[in-house]
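hiii, so i know i said id send this last week but things got crazy w the move. better late than never?? heres the sequnce for the chain we talked about at the cafe, plus the structure i predicted for it. fair warning i was half asleep when i ran it
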Amino acid sequence: MMLIDRLNERIMACKAPICVGLDPVLESIPAVYFADGASEVEAIYAFNQDVIDAVCDLVPAVKPQIAFYELFGSAGIACYERTIAYAKRKGLFVITDAKRNDIGNTAMAYAKAHLGEGSPLEVDFLTVSPFLGEESLVPFIDVCKAEDKGIFILVRTSNAGNRMVQDAQNANGCTVSETLAEYIRQQAGACLGESGYSAIGAVVGATYPQEAETLRKAMPASLFLVPGYGAQGGGAEDVVPCFNADGLGAVVNSSRGILYSYADKHCSREEYKTSVVAATKAMQQDIYGALRGSYPDIKY
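okay and structure toks below
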């Protein structure tokens, strides 16, 4: 069974087309993780472990943003490696948000580093920037085909300033986002599973629901990674257009809304994990309820 099919099975089993971002911000981590003289990276790893333990039975995937680990140099990357290994042991799919991109051998090196079998950085999915053109994407797609992995290509990001680039039009009047969507549609068959979905996917933000509806039609088989829910302003009704009528086709991310939902920064570790569970369940109920209300033929 292909990666994309296994992920869809897990989504349906959990009734949770969501992932939890692992974006550790030192100033926001509860004080208990710094007790007994723990270093910054030790605190981050313990924090990540507790988040993973709290959500591993509730969601199919986690999404570490690698920048938060690169901040600490080699020690931070070691923490990142330990984090993704721990998430895998707990049965979670791992989506690395690194937005890598280059051409030629450099693009292939990035692809093998993050998706290649046996790499210490190996994960299931990687976010990829497309703005160096097709030659920068082909190496990632080739590794996905060879290794049964997935990528999410930036198409319509959740930030307010994206229009400067993503709405720019070519000579035929197509926007950058529309052009990318057509390219992804053409490539989707390279990693198409029995479920009818492809691991050659797209990043489509929850903050642009009208555009998301258009892009869903343009890329019917591709999995969407959907940022922008929660802290960035997107609600459950905003993410519904990212899905197909079967309730599949997208994974909605929340980072700050789950990680930093606690009421007291001086809480215990158990109290912190309880807050993470509560926030995750609230997100699941919010999104699943919206999908059930919008798509009567949902598969799960």
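btw The radius of gyration is 18 Å. thought thatd interest u
miss u guys!!
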